[in-house]
């Protein structure tokens, strides 16, 4: 059994340690981090999974960006503790957070990653969407939470800042439904105890 919670500011040091453990040193030098700097994360979608001892074993984060003037969720990073990898926890975090994003009214999601892994969640290569260099364009992937949401959306991925953040919030409802708090979960493949 695991506890799934929205990440709080008090969790940030533990989540950052998990990210450091899972990714190569210098992860914050990647182009996607430049899009996140100084921009608040989409807090209700930043989820933390703790094991029965209260140890963080998985985390996923989302950030608002713009492509062609349209609001987009930038997924990532998603991390699973090395001792729990291969147990389906990353897939569970992906499915749960994407379901929540759709319920909040988001239309489209993007990430930089491997198509063989993320394709199983419905992501496909985005044409005409440009991440800051040196991102490999083959790794720029998108998912439609609303059919047709990526149709005609192209251009440079831009930070969502200042007035753009306020405009994005007015554009769509992003408040989490009532009741999104910590819950006990048993991801598929895990027994309840």
List the defining traits of the structure above.
193 residues; ten-stranded mixed beta sheet; 10 strands; globular
Descriptive overview:
The chain is α+β, with helices and mostly antiparallel strands. The chain is built from five helices and ten strands. The chain has helices spanning 12-22, 31-36, 89-104, 115-118, 162-171, and strands spanning 2-6, 47-50, 56-67, 70-80, 108-112, 124-125, 129-130, 140-144, 155-159, 183-185. Strands 1, 2, 3, 4, 5, 6, 7, 8, 9 and 10 form a ten-stranded mixed sheet that branches. The longest helix has 16 residues, at 89-104.
Helix/strand/pairing class, anyone? alpha+beta
Outline the biggest β-sheet: 10 strands, mixed
User: What is the general shape?
Assistant: globular
Strand content: 25-35%
What's this, in brief?
It is built from five helices and ten strands; from the N terminus they run βααβββαβαββββαβ. It has 193 residues and is α+β, with helices and mostly antiparallel strands.
List the helices and strands and how they pair.
Layout: E1 2-6, H1 12-22, H2 31-36, E2 47-50, E3 56-67, E4 70-80, H3 89-104, E5 108-112, H4 115-118, E6 124-125, E7 129-130, E8 140-144, E9 155-159, H5 162-171, E10 183-185
Parallel strand pairs: 4-5, 7-9
Antiparallel strand pairs: 1-2, 1-10, 2-3, 3-4, 3-9, 5-8, 6-8
